[in-house]
Amino acid sequence: MKITVLTLFPEMYEDFLHTSIIGRSIDRGIAEVEFVQIRDFAHDAYRHVDDHPFGGGHGQVMKCQPVLDALHSVKKENSYTMLMSPAGHPYTQKKAHELSDKDHLILLCGHYEGLDARINEEVDELVSIGDYVLTGGELASMVIMDSVIRLLKGSITEGSTEEESYENGLLEYPQYTQPADYEGKKVPEILLSGNHAKIKEWRTEQSILLTKKERPDLFKAHEFTKEEKKILQRLQKEGKI
Ligand code: 6GU
After folding, report:
1. Is 132 in the pocket of ligand 1 (CB under 6 A)?
2. Which of 94, 166, 171, 234 has its CA 20 to 30 A from that of 205?
3. What is the pLDDT of residue 5?
């Protein structure tokens, strides 16, 4: 997969692209990342990319011309274009999977108070990574790159993403490693039992309890499997839920 990032601040990505799973995936050629400096497309002597908003108000707005010239310099027929915006659709794991099938992603990062709204018509979608405001789209684009690149074939061990939070609609069960007793805090007995069927059931139970507690919205929307329903009914009977 190729990812093109349009930004005024490519230096923000240095460490991110050279570290851990993302760094390795790029070294292996699983993902290729290129940057386009939007300012290179500004034509005036001061290389301005922004101007005052029509109608007044504070801050600056990024202009159509440099942004769209930058976009058109890289956009091809197989490109999927996303504009990072706090006013976009909420980003989800489902979307990460959809994006992982694309040949070419273009991530457009605005700064200042935003972009001229006519730019919205030139992208496939506006995306937001959560209900808060960032100073620019760069961190959001890194969130998207990270979540997509790790799903690409060869990036991390196959199967290791399947039981994670959000993959089946419930949060992931708690994990433990050595020692079994850390300063009096003990690992749940069942995990030391070697009884794989019981461990699997315990993990599902923990996922259900954790999701109900931390994310009642996900819990409500979840379509429980037959196996999960059985565990849920038992938890209700035991008064745990
Ligand atoms: Cl994608 N951009 C900005 N500037 N702020 C955000 C965001 C994006 N998602 C949440 N907040």
Report:
1. yes
2. 94
3. 98
Longest dimension (CA), the chain: 73
Residues of the chain with CATH 3.40.1280.10: 2-149
Strand partners, 107: 5, 82
CATH 1.10.1270.20 range(s) for the chain read 181-237
Of ligand 1's listed atoms, the one at least distance from the Cα of 129 is: 9
CATH superfamily assigned to domain 181-237 = tRNA(m1g37)methyltransferase, domain 2 (1.10.1270.20)
CA of 217 to the centre of ligand 1 (A): 22
* CA atoms within 13 A of residue 160's CA, in its CB half-sphere: 9
Residue type, 165: S
pTM beyond cutoff 0.85: yes
Running along the chain, 241 residues long, what does each successive block of 10 average in pLDDT? 98 97 97 98 95 95 98 98 97 97 98 91 98 96 98 87 84 97 98 98 98 97 97 97 90
Q: Would you say the CB of residue 133 lies under 6 angstroms from ligand 1?
A: yes
Q: Would you identify the CATH topology of the domain 2-149?
A: Alpha/beta knot (3.40.1280)
